[in-house]
Amino acid sequence: MAGPGGIYVSPLGRARETAAIALPGTPAVVDPRLAEIDTGAWEGRLKSELPKGASDLETYAAAPGGEGLDALMIRVRNFADGLRGPSIVVAHGLWGQVLRGLAQGMAFEEMGAQENGQGCVYHLEDGRERRIGSATAE
User: Fold this and answer.
1) pLDDT at residue 130 is higher than 60
2) pLDDT tens, position by position, 34-48
3) Which pLDDT band, with edges at 50, 70 and 90, does 3 fall under?
4) Which of 75, 74, 37, 41 minimizes the C-alpha distance to 56?
């Protein structure tokens, strides 16, 4: 880690694999706060089997026995408040929607309505977002 920021990655396999591909040989801090939302009783179920909410964020936040939106927002805010400089964060889609929404002062409904691109980078600075690279909706 160089400077006041850092490189942080979710403990989940897919994010760790992405970090290894995107940043080969670069040390990163594995932080459990970067894990995707806990979906409780819906863990391992297909998206097509779940009730449809206004957004994926709304759907998964309503999972029985899951983490819920309030707890997810607290976890994301706790992580973000601890950042002390420019950082690279490799996490997950819904987690990222919450981070991006908090950084831009969005309401919950707006957070879930954001694109949830794959294969791109979301650059956040001074309450603004810029997408870098191609994004395909998940």
Assistant:
1) yes
2) 999 999 999 999 999
3) low
4) 37
Q: Across-strand partners of 128?
A: 125
Distance of CA 59 to the CA centre of its chain: 15
What's the pTM value of the predicted model, to 2 decimals? Answer: 0.89
Separation between Cα atoms, residue 27 and residue 4, nearest integer Å? 15
| DSSP 8-state secondary structure symbol assigned to residue 2 | -
Residue 64 has pLDDT above 90, yes or no: yes
Q: Across residues 108-126, what is the average pLDDT?
A: 91
Section 107-133 average pLDDT: 91
List, as own/partner pairs, every contact residues 115-122 make where C-beta atoms lie below 8 angstroms and the sequence separation is at least 24, other chains included: 116/56, 118/93, 122/96
User: Which residue has tokens 């998964």?
Assistant: 60
Long-range contacts from 131-135, C-beta under 8 angstroms, 24+ separation: none
Q: Which residues of 91-102 are buried (b: 16+ CB within 10 A; e: fewer)?
A: bbbbbbbbbbbb
Report the residue count for the chain.
Answer: 138
Residues 6 or more apart whose Cβ sits within 8 Å of residue 14:
92
